[in-house]
Structures are given as structure tokens and as C-alpha cells.
Amino acid sequence: MTAAMQSSGAPMNTTNSMVASAPRVAYFPDSFHEVNGVAHTSRHFQAFALRRNLPFLCVRAGDREQSFTRDGNVETLELPRGFLSFALEKDLRFDPAFLRHVPLIESTLKRFKPDLIHITGPSEVGALGAALAFHLGVPLAASWHTNVHEYAARRSEWFLRLLPKDQAEFTGQKIEEMAMSAAAAFYSSAQVLFAPNPELCTVLKRMTARTCHLMPRGVDADLFHPARRNRQPGDRDHVLGFVGRLSIEKNVALLVRVQEELERMGHRSFRFLIVGQGAEEGWLRERLPRAEFAGVLRGEALSAAYANMDLFVFPSHTDTFGNVVLEALASGVPAIVTPDGGPRTIVRDGKTGRIVPDDAFADAVASVLGDPATHAAMRQAARAYALTASWDSVFEGVYAAYETILPAGRRAPEQQSPQVPV
Q1: Residue 413 confidence (pLDDT)
Q2: In Å, how far are 246, 368, 383 from 376, measured between CA atoms?
Q3: pTM value?
Q4: CATH entry 1.20.1440.20 includes domain 16-218+390-410
Q5: Buried b (16+ CB within 10 A) or exposed e, 299-312
Q6: pLDDT of residue 96
Q7: Backbone dihedral region for residue 335 (phi beyond 0: left; psi -120 to 50: alpha; all else: beta)
Q8: How far, in Å, CA of 98 to CA of 92, rounded?
Q9: At what angle do helices 37-52 and 323-330 cross, to 10 degrees?
Q10: CB 89 within 8 A of CB 154
Q11: What does the pLDDT average to over 417-421?
């Protein structure tokens, strides 16, 4: 199964009547401007609505001043977080007083008249979206983007290390189970769910008794392209890349272990290129003398960073999909990933990279880069696979799933394609 199934069937009608019959969607993302998977997907979702000129309202939080904008049929209501907000990540905050915006959000929704509300998680924005959907009698859709239960367990490790081993393992498992139960209770308020990989869909179906549809991710294969490579001709080092949040739940400590094991094998002509920021950055800088820390990159600077890598090393066990893995593949960079979570559904073991446990990462790196013919074949296969992923096909699938929860009078005729005009 490809990361985002390609569109099929006859071209969709582009008439104004088709635009008018598309469902009116109010979208409440957990984050939008930040550097994470939710924000990345949300920006692409709004861009899709703009391309298709769909009736779409994005209600989101930010550090900017309150603003309302309209571009064609796409509207945006951005609301500032206040002084009571606190950091969840370096660039992500939570505002417990976000309720002060309810009157404005409600009046905006009543004017917009959404056919459904779509939330992305249990943030202050998502909770308000869910509550307002219930209050206004509007169907609710919810997409799962973050394995909050696994994050809770990882963030508790500082405490668990104080306990005896058996007790720590039991307590860690209970923390994860309780967090998952709480998340499932929240998501069960929606009439339809979306998840980025089949395993999560199965879990959500079981725990919420709701229908769950796949919502994978796409990639801009023009931006992320092998041609962006601009390494100096005399640079013979192998560059091992990582892009993402430098935090404990990303398992970034494994990068240090990979360096140490490669050096014990006698490898010296390699270095790391690390793109991102987070709480573990200082710890990594002390232990990765071979690494260049590029900070947060966007656009062409990010695409060049990917293209300059020889191998993408992504040790996370908690990612639900792995947008960065798909971007690496599009750049012609094979990826080494763990057997857990979403990235393993993207990588084809032995063809576009390797899927291995933590203790085999260094061996996998050495074996791929030690065989130039295998590495070259993986680079080509990685790019070819990424070309099958399309953001448009992802969101066309989302709109098709919306039809299942709309009132009968708002559904598109069954014989027609979903009303998402090209």
C-alpha cells in the first residue's frame, strides 16, 4: 500500500455547482505554525482547500494577534494564546484560558454554517472544537496525529528510573494504558476517525467503536528532490541525517550509540547532519562531535539538507506516520527506521531502506553504505516510491469519508465522485 493512494477514475467536475455542493468544513488543528507533523499536515490541508476553492474555515491558535482572513472560500480565524499558556515543546504551547475565545469562535461558526467540524487532537483548540460541535449539533470528525499514550510513557522515564526495574516496567505500562484510554474516550466523541497507519486504525476502532479511515501523508516531490544536492565534489564523508524534534520520545539518544558503534567497527568517514531543535539538543551536542546541528530549516534550505544526506537515520518508536521519512525518500535518501510506529509502513525493507531494532542500527548503516551498488539502488527506489504519494489524493480521501457522516440532504449523489473539484 502506498503512502497516499493515487487518484483514480474520471477527472472531477470543476463547475461552480460542484464547489457549492462540497461540504463546509470547520477545521480545528492542534498546531499550525509549529514544526511538527500536525502543523505540517494542517498547512497542506488548508493549501488543498485553497487550490480547490472549497468552503473551509480554519480555527487555530498562535502567538500572533487575533486575525480573520478570507481567500476565496477559505477563511482563517487565528486566536492568540495568552500569558497563562505554558510550553509543551520548545515551539508548542497550551493555553488553559483559551475558553475566553468561545463567544467569537461560536459566532464565527454560526455565520460560516459548517456541515461538520474536524479536530486533530485533545488540545485546547481540539477540545473547544469538539464541545462546539456537540453544542451546535454538527457532526464531528477527528484525526489522530500523535501517539499521546507513548509520549506520556516516555516523558515519565525520569520518574520510572527511580523505581526498581520490575516496578518501573509495570508502572510505565500502566501510564501508557491510562493515557490511551483517556485519548480513546476523547476520540469516541467523533462520528468518524482518521489515522495515518492501519495499526492505529485497528486500535481506534476497537477502543472507540467508531469507523476509522486511513489518512496517510503526502510529499511535495518537486521541493524534496535529489537535484537539490549541493555537496562539494571533494566531500567524501557519508552524511547520516536526522530531521525532527530533539526530544526523548524521538529516541534521539540512539544516534550517539550509532556513532560509537560505527567507530568501534573502524568507520571514520561519516558525520551527522541534524535538523531540528528540542530539549535534548544540548545533551546531543556534547556527545556527537561528528554532528552539524543546523537548527530548524524550511523550504529550499530543508530540501537541500535532505538531498545532501546519504542515509536518513530515524530512531523514533512513537511516530504515527513519519512525514520526515517520506521527505527523505523523495530526496533520494534511503531511511533506517525501527519496527514500531508509522515509519515502518513507508519504508520497504531492503529496497528503500532498512527496518531494524535499535541494536541493529549501526550494522544497517554500515551494510548499506558499505555496498555502493545497493546504496545506489535504494536511492532510486526511495525516490520512485515517494512519487506515488500525493497530498491531493490524501485529502480527496478525507472528503470522501466525510460523506459518511453528513446528513442525507448534504451528501453528494452516490454515483458521483466526492465533491472536491480539481
Answers
A1: 54
A2: 29, 9, 11
A3: 0.75
A4: no
A5: eeebbbbbbbbbbb
A6: 85
A7: beta
A8: 14
A9: 70
A10: no
A11: 49
Rounded CA-CA distance 191/195 in Å is 14
Q: Which amino acid is at 197?
A: N
Quote the CA–CA distance of 175 and 152 in Å, as a whole number. 7
pLDDT at 40 over 80: yes
Q: Do domains 16-218+390-410 and 226-386 have the same CATH topology?
A: yes
Considering only CA atoms, which of 391, 383, 319 is closest in space to residue 353? 383
Q: How far is C-alpha 163 from the chain's CA centre?
A: 33
CA–CA separation, 114 vs 93, rounded Å? Answer: 27
89-93, 172-176, 396-400: the lowest-pLDDT one: 172-176
CATH architecture of 226-386: 3-Layer(aba) Sandwich (3.40)
Q: What is the pLDDT of residues 193-211, one digit of tens each?
A: 999 888 888 988 998 999 9
User: How many other CB atoms are found less than 10 A from the CB of residue 12?
Assistant: 17
Sheet containing 311-314: which strands, arranged edge to edge? 291-295, 270-275, 238-243, 311-314, 335-337, 353-355
CB 78 within 8 A of CB 62: yes
Residue 342 DSSP class: G
**pLDDT > 90: percent of the chain:** 64
Q: Which residue has the higher pLDDT, 158 or 105?
A: 105
Within 10 A of 155 (CB to CB), how many other CB atoms are there? 14
Which phi-psi region, left, alpha or beta, contains residue 294 (left: φ > 0; alpha: ψ -120 to 50)?
alpha
- Cell numbers at residue 227, please? 537535484
pLDDT of residue 27: 98
**Length of the chain measured in residues:** 422
Is beta strand 92-94 parallel, antiparallel or unpaired with respect to 140-143? Answer: unpaired
Contact 143, 120 (CB under 8 A): yes
**Rounded CA separation 218/183 (Å):** 25
Per DSSP bridges, beta strands 140-143 and 192-195 are parallel
Query: What Rg do the C-alpha atoms of the chain give, in angstroms?
Result: 22
Amino acid 357 reads P
Domain ranges of the chain: 16-218+390-410, 226-386
Report the amino acid identity of residue 88.
Answer: L
Please tell me the distance from the alpha carbon of residue 326 to that of residue 194, in angstroms, as a whole number: 19
Q: Report residue 174's pLDDT band, with 50, 70 and 90 as the boundaries.
A: low
Q: What is the 3-state secondary structure (H, E, C) of 296-310?
A: CCCHHHHHHHHHCCC
